[in-house]
Design a protein that fits this description.
Blueprint (H helix, E strand, L loop, with lengths): L1 H7 L10 H4 L5 H9 L1 H13 L5 H19 L1 H14 L6 H32 L2 H22 L4 H20 L4 H12 L5 H25 L3 H17 L7 H21 L2 H22 L2
Helix pairs in contact: 3-14, 4-5, 5-7, 6-14, 7-12, 7-13, 8-11, 9-10, 10-13, 11-12
Length: 295
């Protein structure tokens, strides 16, 4: 259920800091493969945004490997314990407040990874070249074009249906197939969420522009590593709360509340068999966490 929370609050996580945690949100079929090769995948992903120089490649690979080792040894058993609690909870009626608690728990665990990675992230930010920042800016622009093509087309009904289909794809992964009556209830809860894809597009661009501003400031002023770490951490915290939260507080608050309500509806319309299906899915995650932690 945690991956729903992260996706439904789309845009609140920065591009660089949650990649490692995302391995745990990919589904059982991807956890072992993705996590076991996490150092390679993370390097490939970051390199696609930045294009590392020959001098950067060795120490970046070493930093990623060290972070992965720390994460495996210190975080995975905690994830397993947390997921066990979720597994037990979904066998009973789920409240929106419990879903919001999962959002808070997700944020807490992401920040643990962020804080551990800050020295390495700061070192990387201080070493970026102008052409690498320019490449990042172009990558953001390409991502924004893809976003506009997917989310800024059609009328309100088209966009609601597109959003609902994404919800149901995840719902069926967790619970299996739903009947027409169940889908109607989930659709009503999905459509009750505020919908403003133009605002989300503007929000993601604000987030990108702020990161680019920080990186250019670091390049121009060459502040201390402590100052860079503080800037990056503040950026992550602001990303959780949304950069335009002050002027769009009602929208973001209603989005989180209604998303939590929808997830509670989804869990509560599930039959005992569907809840057992979800429990089995979670058990796969739990087992993978234990297996990977023991390596």
């Amino acid at each position: 259920m945690q991956n729903f929370i992260m996706r439904l609050n789309r845009g609140f996580l920065p591009w660089l800091t949650v990649f490692l945690f995302a391995f745990m949100l990919a589904g059982c079929s991807a956890i072992r493969l993705g996590y076991a090769n996490g150092d390679t995948v993370m390097y490939w992903w970051l390199n696609g945004y930045i294009d590392f120089t020959d001098d950067q490649k060795p120490w970046i690979k070493a930093d990623i490997d060290q972070l992965m080792g720390w994460h495996r040894k210190t975080q995975l058993n905690d994830y397993a314990q947390w997921l066990t609690q979720v597994q037990q909870r979904i066998q009973q009626r789920v409240t929106p407040e419990e879903v919001m608690g999962d959002y808070a728990a997700t944020r807490k665990r992401v920040m643990l990874v962020v804080d551990k990675a800050l020295p390495e992230l700061s070192k990387l930010a201080m070493d970026l070249k102008p052409e690498q920042i320019a490449r990042l800016e172009k990558k953001f622009a390409a991502n924004n074009d893809a976003y506009r093509k997917e989310y800024l087309k059609g009328d309100l009904e088209d966009r609601q249906l597109h959003r609902f289909k994404k919800v149901m794809k995840q719902a069926k992964y967790w619970f299996g197939d739903f009947d027409a009556q169940q889908e109607a209830q989930i659709r009503a809860a999905s459509d009750a969420r505020p919908l403003d894809n133009e605002l989300w597009a503007a929000e993601r661009q604000l987030r990108q522009q702020e990161l680019l501003r920080i990186l250019k400031k670091i390049q121009a002023e060459q502040p201390s590593q402590e100052a860079v770490s503080a800037m990056l951490r503040q950026y992550v915290e602001r990303s959780f709360e949304n950069f335009s939260y002050a002027e769009n507080k009602e929208f973001f608050d209603n989005t989180r509340t209604s998303a939590s309500n929808m997830l509670a509806v989804m869990a509560n319309v599930a039959t005992p068999e569907q809840r057992a299906h979800a429990a089995k899915r979670l058990q796969g995650w739990i087992d993978d966490c234990h297996t990977l932690a023991a390596r």
